[in-house]
């Protein structure tokens, strides 16, 4: 449906023109100019949203004071706002958004299914249940990120088993995902309300996803996982792109289709679990970020880097809205993204249904 | 001369009832081999095994005398290309970008572009007559052009051996011959081609060698004139027929008997 619009909007290079190439020593990478432009723009927007997050509101650090405060020359209150109140929350938001965007891009690409997103098929809810269990039932025994990872992996396994056809059939994947997500959320509610009745505040975080009261340890967790995932993402980017053309062709091109899919799913599970362990199951960033990235770049393929940037921007902007709007104060950011993402999910379901995919 | 591609004792499929059983086949360099046979005879399964897509239950496939399972997947893909029956065109991809994907086996993690890419892609687009449509989206092409775009992709792969799985299915008759003539040209330029086709007349007209399969075995193998006989067609396809020479090319043409 965007086909005709993108075609008229995009400036046409001369027919058969080769794409520019970034060459540096042994490195040679083709460059998609519009994607680079989008990446720069997104970086500027993330920076702007980050500055606004620090500057706005009652305790905000004025923009003119930001450079001084960031370099450690601020007053005590300012340093407290940056170091304890808003800095960690912002760092978690950027990292979590990027992780969710990447996880979604990988998963949607290898399932060849715009609805095959970790948040739609119950991975996030599974990770949330695992995190809640680890944090509330086994505090100190199992680290929360490990609980989240186990929950996400279990959800993934149940979904793959329940469809009877692995991850191939879009319709079955979604139905199984809805079931798994419901079970996982029921389990989370059970853990929080029965076993940890006195900690009602944590409920919203594990059920809906929230960035309230984040500390630097949360930021380190998500950024460390992102950093560790980076070489794997880089190694998988090429094969994942080839995989979109079907298993047989990917195999024939030497891209080893099933190994690629397994790698991408594992990476997606790890990134989703890491995101959930620091911010709870925030809905629909994984679903929407890759698709916004694709529309921005106009390039086929998983658009991994752009998906991460869009994810970061979405989450920082959503959290800014939640923090600064008069009605949003104290609202978990996951509820906010669910409101917007739910509308998009509905649109996507109708579109895929009309196309006859479901 | 030793064959460029060969199957030795190949058994393919799953479980107790394999699709292909203990099959031997040698393809010499420069041949245009066409595999024909009734539905379910195992011809596509065989082609996929030759292309390293299917893993054999037993036996092996040799490319230039080396077992392809012992070679790296990308190393095989630099020498042999396979066009499957229903590849998926990524949303929004242009003809040139699709052809460029055929360069994947020539790339490494840090070198995802080489000067030879440009020559290979341009040449593939020229050979398939798509140079003028390079920036057109694959989704907006006609069926015949779209199939040419896929052929351009496997040509950009720049391999000596080309495996084609029913490349003319779903095309109208003009586009079918159009594509077959293109394969004949590629064959004349020295490529080794192995194709699975449905139409016996087309197979006989373009192949230098015909392999007839039935029930997972090769039942006849040789020049089209020797393989396509009325007796064999009736035996394998269950179709009583006459075989007459094609008035233009003298290759065998199957004329089915009317049912009385």
TrEMBL record, chain A:
Keyword terms of this UniProt record: Cell membrane, Membrane, Transmembrane, Transmembrane helix, Transport
Coiled coil: none
Name of this chain's protein: Iron chelate uptake ABC transporter family permease subunit
Entry keyword annotation includes Lipoprotein: no
Xref: Pfam families: FecCD
Mode of membrane association: Multi-pass membrane protein
Keyword Ribonucleoprotein attached: no
Transmembrane segments: 36-57, 90-108, 120-142, 148-167, 174-196, 220-242, 263-284, 331-350
Organism of derivation: Nocardiopsis tropica
Family according to the record: Belongs to the binding-protein-dependent transport system permease family. FecCD subfamily.
Compartments where located: Cell membrane
UniProtKB/TrEMBL annotation, chain B:
PANTHER family per UniProt: FE(3+) DICITRATE TRANSPORT ATP-BINDING PROTEIN FECE-RELATED, IRON(3+)-HYDROXAMATE IMPORT ATP-BINDING PROTEIN FHUC
Keywords: ATP-binding, Cell membrane, Ion transport, Iron, Iron transport, Membrane, Nucleotide-binding, Transport
GO molecular function per UniProt: ATP binding
One matching Pfam family: ABC_tran
InterPro entries: AAA+_ATPase (IPR003593), ABC_transporter-like_ATP-bd (IPR003439), ABC_transporter-like_CS (IPR017871), P-loop_NTPase (IPR027417), Siderophore_ABC-ATPase (IPR051535)
Compartments it resides in: Cell membrane
Chain ranges of the ABC transporter domain: 5-240
CDD domains from the UniProt entry: ABC_Iron-Siderophores_B12_Hemin
Official protein name in the record: ABC transporter ATP-binding protein
Membrane topology, as annotated: Peripheral membrane protein
Top-level taxon in the UniProt lineage: Bacteria
């Amino acid at each position: 449906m965007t086909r005709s619009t993108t075609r008229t909007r995009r400036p046409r290079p001369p027919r058969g023109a080769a794409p520019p190439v970034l060459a540096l020593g042994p490195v040679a990478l083709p460059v998609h100019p519009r994607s680079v432009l989008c990446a720069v723009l997104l970086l500027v927007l993330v920076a702007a949203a980050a500055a606004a997050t620090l500057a706005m509101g009652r305790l905000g650090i004025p923009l003119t004071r930001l450079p001084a405060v960031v370099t450690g020359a601020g007053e005590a209150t300012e340093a407290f706002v940056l170091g304890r109140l808003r800095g960690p929350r912002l760092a978690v938001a950027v990292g979590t958004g990027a992780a969710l965007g990447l996880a979604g891009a990988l998963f949607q690409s290898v399932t060849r299914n715009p609805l095959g997103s970790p948040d739609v098929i119950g991975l996030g809810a599974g990770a949330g249940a695992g995190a809640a269990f680890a944090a509330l039932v086994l505090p100190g025994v199992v680290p929360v990120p490990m609980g989240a990872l186990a929950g996400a992996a279990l959800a993934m396994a149940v979904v793959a088993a329940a469809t009877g056809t692995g991850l191939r059939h879009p319709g079955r994947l979604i139905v199984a995902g809805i079931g798994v997500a419901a079970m996982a959320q029921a389990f989370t509610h059970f853990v929080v309300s029965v076993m940890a009745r006195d900690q009602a505040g944590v409920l919203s975080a594990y059920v809906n996803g929230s960035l309230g009261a984040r500390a630097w340890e949360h930021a380190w967790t998500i950024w460390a996982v992102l950093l560790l995932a980076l070489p794997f993402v880089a190694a998988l980017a090429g094969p994942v792109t080839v995989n979109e053309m079907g298993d047989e062709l990917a195999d024939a091109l030497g891209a080893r289709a099933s190994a690629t899919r397994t790698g991408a799913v594992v990476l997606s599970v790890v990134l989703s679990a890491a995101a959930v362990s620091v911010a709870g199951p925030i809905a629909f960033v994984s679903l929407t970020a890759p698709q916004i990235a694709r529309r921005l770049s106009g390039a086929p393929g998983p658009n991994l880097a752009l998906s991460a940037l869009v994810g970061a921007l979405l989450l920082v902007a959503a959290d800014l809205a939640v923090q600064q709007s008069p009605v949003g104060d104290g609202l978990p950011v996951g509820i906010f993204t669910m409101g917007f993402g739910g509308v998009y999910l509905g649109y996507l379901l109708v579109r895929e249904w009309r196309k006859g995919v479901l | 001369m030793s064959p460029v591609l060969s199957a030795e004792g190949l058994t393919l499929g799953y479980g107790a009832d394999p699709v292909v059983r203990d099959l031997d086949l040698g393809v010499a360099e420069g041949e245009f081999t066409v595999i024909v046979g009734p539905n379910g005879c195992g011809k596509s399964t065989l082609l996929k095994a030759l292309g390293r897509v299917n893993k054999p239950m037993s036996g092996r496939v040799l490319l230039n005398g080396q077992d392809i399972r012992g070679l790296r997947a990308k190393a095989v893909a630099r020498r042999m290309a396979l066009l499957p029956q229903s590849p998926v065109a990524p949303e929004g991809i242009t003809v040139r970008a699709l052809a460029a994907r055929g360069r994947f086996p020539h790339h490494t993690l840090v070198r995802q572009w080489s000067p030879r890419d440009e020559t290979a892609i341009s040449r593939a687009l020229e050979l398939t007559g798509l140079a003028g449509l390079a920036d057109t989206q694959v989704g907006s092409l006609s069926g015949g052009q779209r199939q040419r775009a896929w052929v351009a992709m496997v040509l950009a792969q720049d391999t000596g051996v080309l495996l084609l799985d029913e490349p003319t299915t779903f095309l109208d008759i003009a586009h079918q011959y159009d594509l077959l003539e293109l394969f004949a040209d590629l064959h004349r330029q020295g490529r080794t081609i192995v194709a699975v086709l449905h139409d016996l007349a087309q197979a006989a007209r373009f192949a230098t060698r015909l392999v007839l399969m039935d029930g997972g075995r090769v039942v006849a193998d040789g020049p089209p004139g020797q393989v396509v006989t009325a007796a064999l067609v009736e035996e394998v396809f269950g179709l009583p027929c006459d075989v007459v020479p094609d008035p233009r090319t003298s290759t065998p043409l199957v004329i089915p008997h009317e049912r009385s």
